[in-house]
Design goal:
Catalyzes the condensation of (S)-aspartate-beta-semialdehyde [(S)-ASA] and pyruvate to 4-hydroxy-tetrahydrodipicolinate (HTPA). By secondary structure, the protein is an alpha/beta fold. It has a single domain, classed as TIM Barrel, CATH 3.20.20. 47% of the residues lie in helices and 12% in strands. The chain is built from twelve helices and eight strands. It is globular, with a radius of gyration of 18 Å.
């Protein structure tokens, strides 16, 4: 099994806001402590689920500092710093290091769709900017650009490029990189957690872990204990909730925040252009959660 540099079970944490839409640092601390207490080894801040496109640089740094204060050394913090601009990404990387992050999540620059040589140069420049380990974020459905397997293999030669958040849905490509490098592959899509883990993955970075961290961790624990039947059962058990949160026509940020609010945990509104879930969607989310919560997982 691949070494997991940030732990195995990572939550792609939402960014709580208050009723006015301002950053809710007290809520972030409460939620972070809850997630770590429920089995998360680490938290990914200011990623897709954390609404990074609509939070300021100052808010990103303040969030890291607040969460670090709340969880201490009980969990790792991986800070999302990827943008469409290399200079901006470098600045965010240095600020995240100063704020107390343990690692950096760096998404492919979006919109400009750089070719592979430019993409490689971008990631190397970010990796050289700080002393922090880097998790590459491969999500071509959002960025428009795949980090090709051969590019991944070359990037793995950098001492600080240690991990990948994998949302490419390419078992052949991922398996090729896993077999050829020491990169830790984290499933970024919940239905991909068990399949990727079975071929040498390191764990997950999950949106659904905001509301079901213990269940998702139990899948990894069962597999590590050699109980593949129980791991498969956990995978199948959580799928209806995964579908509601991640594949029901709304972004995961919207659905995760709606369900967290139902559960009495910090969340708050989403920022535009996102819009809140309507009452019917919220009822469906609550029903799916309650069904999955039954069974002692």
């Amino acid at each position: 099994m691949t070494t997991s540099p940030f732990g195995r079970a990572l939550c792609a944490m939402i960014t709580p806001f208050d009723a006015t839409g301002a950053l809710d640092l007290d809520g972030a601390q409460k939620l972070a402590a809850h997630l770590v207490g429920e089995g998360c080894d680490g938290l990914v801040l200011s990623g897709t689920t954390g609404e990074s496109p609509t939070t300021s640089d100052a808010e990103k740094s303040a969030l890291i500092r607040a969460v670090r204060e709340a969880i201490g050394d009980r969990g790792t913090i991986v800070a999302g710093v990827g943008t469409a601009d290399t200079r901006h990404t470098l600045r965010l990387a240095r600020e995240a290091e100063q704020a107390g992050a343990d690692g950096l999540l760096v998404v492919s620059p979006y919109y400009s769709r750089p070719p592979q040589d430019a993409l490689e140069a971008h990631f190397l420049e970010v990796a050289d900017a700080t002393g922090l380990p880097v998790m590459l974020y491969d999500i071509p459905g959002r960025t428009g650009t795949r980090i090709e397997p051969d590019t991944m293999i070359r990037l793995a030669g950098h001492e600080r490029i240690v991990a990948v958040k994998d949302c490419a849905y390419d078992v052949l490509g991922s398996s090729k990189v896993i077999s050829a490098t020491s990169l830790a592959y984290y499933a970024g899509c919940e239905e991909w957690i068990l399949p990727l883990y079975a071929v040498g993955g390191a764990g997950f970075v999950s949106t659904v872990a905001n509301v079901a961290p213990r269940l998702l961790r139990s899948l990894l624990d069962a597999y590590d204990e050699g109980d593949t039947a129980r791991a498969t059962a956990a995978h199948q058990h959580v799928l209806p909730l995964v579908e509601r949160v991640m594949a029901d026509g709304l972004p995961g940020t919207v659905t995760a925040k709606a369900l967290l609010a139902e559960l009495g945990l910090p969340a708050g509104p989403v920022r535009g252009p996102l819009r809140p879930a309507d009452p019917e969607r919220v009822r469906g989310l609550r029903t799916a959660y309650e069904a999955v919560a039954v069974g002692g997982w």
